[in-house]
Amino acid sequence: MNMRTTFWLLALTFISRSTLAVEQDAWLYDFAAQTQAQAQNHNIPGYAFVLVRKGQPAKLVTYGKTERKGQKIDRNTVFRLASVSKTFAGVLMAKMVEQSLLDWKTPLLEIVPEYGFNRLEPNPITLGHLMSQSSGFIPNAYDNLIEADYSLKRVLGQLAKLEPLCEPGKCYTYQNALFGVLEDYFVNQKSSYSDVLAKQIIQPLKMPHASTGRASLEQSKSWAKPHIAITRKKWRKTSVQEEYYRYGPAAGVNASIEDMTIWIRAMLGEYPQVVPSSVIETVTSPQIKTKRELRRRDWRKFLKDAHYGMGWRIYDFKGNKLNYHGGWVQGYRADVAFAPDQNVGFAMLMNAESNLINSFTAKFWEAFFKHHNATQSAQIAKQVGK
């Protein structure tokens, strides 16, 4: 069997406890069972998650349907990634910097001159500040204008007039609208962000379903419909919202769990010709401290430190490095993370705006590291006893 073969588990009932136990993954069975039980208790429409070990078959679980009377969610079902899209943007920008097409130190004023972005000398807002979420602007600046359906140019024009709360590069201030700078930059280059992302990342990685934009999502053969909460345990299908798709680098990518499996493999170094190790190192190197993350519900008991890199968050998860990003847009949630020292990654996609995903992902890594550390200790004890 090809080691890259993905074990596709259409539903949790197909997981064999004995098989996982033999493969020393009984802990994964328990996690999957608990996850499904909670999802059923909260009537979550559907989700998919995957465990990826470098160079080994992926373990994939799907649950539920694309909508109440829709198709079963499978490995090819496409979801919105929301802000997990920023991990793609970070890698793309790092590649373009290595190709000398861009520079982290280039001021936004030079990238999109028409808006007159921050002219502070000697420290203007740069591409590096944009990607590391350290522009200094008030957090989530003008997200309300995005949601009010203002044009991208109008939103960027308003952003350019803002005075930073702190000097660029000195404080963490998470943004979405500011990523519109990259959309405009590629248009000025007689191209588009979507085209460049496809040519530099999606196509070379041979991601079968990944795309950008609402039209591409809705043209997918199988795609998960968005659901919003009516009550704590009741969900209603809603329409796909267009607004954040206009800010592709921030929230415009669509993908299936099969695509996310490939993405994790790329971040684990399995596709160095597309995502070189130097790029991985760049995007997952801490740039700015994110103290607020240390108080994050469901995660705070595990996190010792937290930073933002270039489109990725970097956590100290009880002494283990964990590179992570989450996504949330109307009707969808998404998480992706990988532990580089253990060569393991995890992704979860959900077609409901449920905060359960925070608990699911934190519990996955708690269970994984507990199992991994116990296995390592047992192996050491066995060697010592020889």
Question: What's this entry about, in short?
Answer:
By secondary structure, the protein is an alpha+beta fold. It has one domain: DD-peptidase/beta-lactamase superfamily (Beta-lactamase, 3-Layer(aba) Sandwich). It is built from 14 helices and 14 strands.
Main sheet specs: 9 strands, mixed
Which percent range describes the beta-strand content? Answer: 15-25%
Domains (count):
1
Average pLDDT, all residues = 92
- With strands numbered from the N-terminus, the spatial order across the biggest sheet is 1-3-2-14-13-12-11-10-9
Contiguous low-pLDDT stretches (5 residues minimum) are 1-22
The CATH class, by name, is Alpha Beta
Q: Helices and strands, in N-to-C order?
A: EHHEEEHHHHHHHEHEEHEHHEEEEEEH
CATH topology-level name: Beta-lactamase
Tell me the number of strands.
14
User: Can you name the CATH architecture?
Assistant: 3-Layer(aba) Sandwich
Describe the model.
The chain is α+β, with helices and mostly antiparallel strands. The protein has one domain (7-90, 192-385): Beta-lactamase (3-Layer(aba) Sandwich). 35% of the residues lie in helices and 19% in strands. The chain has helices at 17-22, 26-41, 85-98, 108-111, 127-131, 143-147, 152-160, 180-188, 193-202, 214-218, 248-251, 257-267, 277-283, 356-385, and strands at residues 7-9, 46-53, 59-64, 78-80, 211-212, 227-231, 234-237, 253-256, 288-289, 303-308, 313-317, 320-329, 332-339, 344-350. The strands form three sheets. A nine-stranded mixed sheet has the order 1-3-2-14-13-12-11-10-9, sandwiched between helices. A hairpin with a 4-residue loop joins β10 (303-308) and β11 (313-317). α2 runs antiparallel to α14 (356-385) and α3 (85-98) packs across α9. The relative contact order is 0.16. Residues 1-22 have low confidence and may be disordered.
